[in-house]
Design brief:
The chain is of the alpha/beta class and 190 residues long. The protein is built from 5 helices and 8 strands, in the order E-H-H-E-H-E-E-E-H-E-E-H-E. The protein is globular, with a radius of gyration of 17 Å.
């Protein structure tokens, strides 16, 4: 199976400690943030050249699929999971049962199928090319749920929030694809 380190934060720790731990873990990774690698269709080269995988999953289905991916890989890389424990009790952090299987027609089935999603697109009903979005936010972890709650409270339909679930190796190919989907975006936040 390979090594899996689950860095679950409990509720009484401060958010700055969680961010510090994430930052220290990312410093030890050998993923070069200044070099966008050539992406081969199988994505094997990028994952095989890095020293480990770091994920911050935000759904039960994605947590399941990252562990399943770790088991079924033909090669071994350590997996670091940095998901806060209080996310397990969040009212919006849930997955349909259909997100765990490959049966089409269920509410949770999407084009990505049932596998680990390195990046989760904005959950609002958006088309392939968005014209009315003025702000694209890339975030990771439980911050998504806080931002989404505030977006719903304000009623901001012109803001898209994408979740980066795999931090190392960074999903450059999916980020580039998402940026192309939003041609009218003036500001990109991460």
């Amino acid at each position: 199976m390979g090594l899996v380190v689950d860095l679950v934060e409990v509720d009484f720790f401060k958010i700055d400690r969680e961010l510090r731990q994430e930052k220290e873990t990312m410093k030890m990774s050998d993923d070069n943030p200044f070099l966008i690698p050539e992406m081969d269709p199988t994505l094997r080269k990028q994952i095989q050249e890095c020293n480990w995988q770091v994920v911050n999953v935000t759904t039960p289905a994605n947590y399941f699929h990252v562990l399943r991916r770790q088991i079924h890989r033909e090669f071994r890389k350590p997996l670091i999971v940095m998901s806060p424990k209080n996310l397990l009790r969040h009212k919006d952090c849930k997955s349909n049962l259909s997100e765990f299987d490959d049966v089409q027609g269920h509410p949770g089935f999407d084009k990505q199928g049932t596998r680990f999603k390195r990046l989760i697109k904005d959950q609002n009903d958006h088309s392939l090319l968005e014209e009315g979005i003025r702000l694209l936010v890339l975030c990771s972890g439980k911050v998504y749920y806080e931002l989404d709650e505030e977006r719903k409270k304000v009623g901001a339909k012109d803001i898209a929030i994408c979740r980066v679930e795999q931090l190392c190796p960074f999903p450059y190919d999916l980020i580039q694809r998402e940026l192309k989907r939003y041609p009218t975006v003036k500001h990109k936040m991460s």
